[in-house]
Write a structure and sequence with these properties.
The chain is α/β, with parallel strands linked by helices and 449 residues long. Helices cover 22% and strands 22% of the residues. It contains nine helices and 19 strands. Strand 4, helix 5 and strand 5 form a beta-alpha-beta unit. Helix 5 packs parallel to helix 6. It is globular, with a radius of gyration of 23 Å. The relative contact order is 0.16. Bound molecules: beta-L-fucopyranose. The site of beta-L-fucopyranose has 6 residues, from loops.
């Protein structure tokens, strides 16, 4: 190895305390011209886990998609306890929750001025209840970020399909949610869409919607197929793409709900030379359905399955939005709650000791888009997992890497977690960045036994 021909990028201990937690930002100049995350996008990604709550009229009709003709009298949770949701989220290591304030059936969980199809017409809390309020209060009490889902598709509203009129109403509903409930961290726009009652197709005014959120909640990220801040990962199984770039070509997916050649691929993989930072969010449910169905009580994802899910979402540069639906009583089911806590325990145990922490790491740069690192662990160990992290506050650059004798992969981004097959003990971890879209920064290397 001819060291004189290589720029020594960094040497010394890179590892920081915190096991699975993302690294602290290091002050270095940015990659010229490459997209970088906003403060809100960075915070969103570093949370890693958010709990999705599908709750509404479907919870009481035992359906997945209501048709909008349900009577509000059905909405009658007997023991609604949003604090229980928030405590379960926290015990599971989740840092945010997102609630379906309105699903496709149009039933609003807050007492909106825009329609009578809401909790105000239900027997719950004598028609005085506001579930969005109770939800955000519980989030704040437990130190979680709060996000809201407002379905664009509305199967109850008579104006749906009368585009300008419904767009006004949708903007009004959004304004209520964005102004009355304090800071929100995420606003979720679903891509599902259908015909209006009059057979007309609703044409949404996305630029107006996005501008409204930007103005009223500048700290929130907006989710949709087309972002603008975070994108759908392209499936509902919670599997991020491999590779998974946080940069996208914004001309491919321009609105929620698009279909056609190249759309799912763009959502799954992003684009290495994308001009916009729009990381992927992987959403799935802990049960087969998004809403609670008693028949699925024995089909809650196991702790093992949840750990695998974490590895193929967070461990592939995505954020996991895991849905856990409350029962008609208004509480999360016992199995779901205990499996969330079990997943957290398992992940904590997995990442309990970073064997690379405090160890010398020396970086060299053999070529403009390659880099090589050696970590001396000081003793021979059998690693079970590797966690690699790019300093994404400076952008994402790594396209292909290998770890001698242990693993190889494509993108890294916020986190790439590799499970290592049992093998002989190793003392040195040799990481090679084989290809990158710009000069790669030193990455953080964590080693777990
Ligand atoms: C889909 C919806 O149709 C499902 O009901 C669920 O809300 C899921 C998260 O998004 O598009």
């Amino acid at each position: 190895m001819n060291v004189s021909r290589r720029a020594v990028l960094q040497s010394g201990a890179l590892a920081l305390a915190g096991a699975c937690l993302p690294s602290a930002a290091r002050a270095m100049p940015a990659q010229a011209g490459r997209p970088r995350p906003s403060a809100a996008q960075l915070a969103w990604q570093r949370e890693e886990l958010a709990l999705f709550i599908h709750f509404g009229i479907n919870t009481f009709t035992n359906r997945e998609w209501g048709d909008g003709r349900e009577v509000p009298a059905l909405f009658a949770p007997s023991r609604l306890d949003t604090r229980q949701w928030a405590r379960a989220a926290k015990a599971g290591g989740f840092r945010a929750m997102v609630l379906t304030a309105k699903h496709h059936d149009g039933f609003c969980l807050w007492p909106t001025r825009t329609t009578r199809h809401s909790v105000a017409s239900s027997p719950w809390r004598g028609g005085e209840g506001d579930l969005v309020r109770e939800f955000v209060d519980a989030c704040r009490t437990e130190g979680l970020k709060a996000g809201l889902y407002l379905s664009p598709w509305d199967r109850n509203n008579p104006h749906y399909g009368d585009s300008p009129r419904y767009n006004d109403l949708y903007a009004e509903q959004l304004t209520e949610l964005l102004t009355n409930y304090g800071p929100l961290s995420e606003v979720w726009f679903d891509g599902a869409n259908g015909e209006g009652p009059n057979g007309k197709r609703q044409v949404y005014d996305w630029p107006r919607v996005w501008a409204l959120v930007r103005t009223l909640q500048p700290g929130a990220v907006m989710f949709s197929d087309a972002g603008p801040d975070v994108r759908w990962c392209g499936n509902e199984t919670g599997s991020a793409g491999d590779p998974n770039w946080s940069t996208v070509d914004p001309s491919v997916v321009t609105a929620p709900g698009m279909s056609g050649p190249g759309i799912i691929e763009a959502l799954q993989h992003g684009h290495p030379h994308g001009t916009v930072w729009r990381p992927a969010e992987a959403d799935t449910s802990i049960r087969p359905g998004w809403f609670y169905h008693p028949a699925e009580d024995a089909r809650v994802k196991s702790i093992d399955t949840l750990v695998e899910l974490y590895l193929r979402s967070v461990g592939r540069n995505s954020k996991l939005l895991l849905n856990v639906p409350p029962t008609p009583h208004g509480v999360l089911y016992a199995t779901d709650v205990s499996n969330l806590a079990g997943m957290h325990d398992r992940l904590r145990a997995m990442c309990a000791e970073d064997l690379a922490e405090g160890r010398r790491v020396s970086w060299t740069r053999p070529g403009p888009h390659t880099a090589v690192a050696r970590v001396d662990l000081g003793r021979a160990v059998r690693p079970s997992f590797l966690r690699l992290e790019e300093p994404i506050e400076r952008g994402q650059t790594v396209a292909r890497y290998s770890v001698a004798g242990l693993s190889r992969g494509t993108t890294i981004g916020h986190a790439k977690i590799d499970r290592i097959r049992p093998g002989p003990p190793v003392r040195y971890i040799d990481v090679t960045i084989e290809d990158a879209v710009a000069a790669p920064d030193p990455i953080r290397i964590k080693v777990f036994a």
